[in-house]
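Weekly structure sync, notes
Attendees: PL (lead), two postdocs, one rotation student
Agenda item 3: pending single-chain targets
PL asked that the sequence for the first pending target be pasted directly into the notes so everyone works from the same version. It is reproduced below exactly as submitted, 95 residues in total.
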Amino acid sequence: MKTENNAESGMKSGMKTDNNTESGLKATQKQILLLIKQNPQISITAIAETLKMAKSGIAKQMRQLQASGIIKRVGPDKGGHWETVEDVHSSRRKP
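Predicted structure, written out during the meeting:
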């Protein structure tokens, strides 16, 4: 019986992995956060294509991130953007 030791290869192939990382986020959620930080206007469709996953799976992960307060949507579906907790906190700090 072959076991998959490399979570990243599972992510690329679209296989589900339930391994949580040290921060409590799943590997997919970490990848989603990275993509949002790189492009706050990114769509769920673009994230799904980049990670080679189903849109419904990405939408579910993003709902979990929103429910946890890690990301939030600002503005409408078209023309809006995503913010991460770090973005929200840093925009509130004034020198």
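Discussion points:
- The two ends are 58 Å apart (CA to CA).
- The first helix runs from residue 7 to 13.
Action: rotation student to compare against the earlier draft before next sync.
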